[in-house]
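fyi for ur records
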Amino acid sequence: MRRAAAPIATVCYKCYDQTMNRKITQRELRNQSAAVLREVEAGRTIVVTRNGTPVAELRPIRPRRFVPRAIIAEAAVRAPGIDAGRFRADLDAVIDQHVDD
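which gave:
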């Protein structure tokens, strides 16, 4: 007899729980902090527990994306021109400027 497939939400949750989050104890964090931080740096999220209760989550910080000013200025120069009158007319067509008392 064939077994019924598990609901997709359950499967996805289990997959996420096993691959994305790892639970470690406070003691493991203290004793193996360098290894734990290497895992976090590699992209893994780790939940720290104390007496079995989750107390903290260690997760990677997304790197900031810096765009140099020269690149932004160059993009502005290459951008198409805007007809101010048409732009204002388009805005007026979709935005009601009246304030009701």
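The mean pLDDT is 83. thats all i got for now
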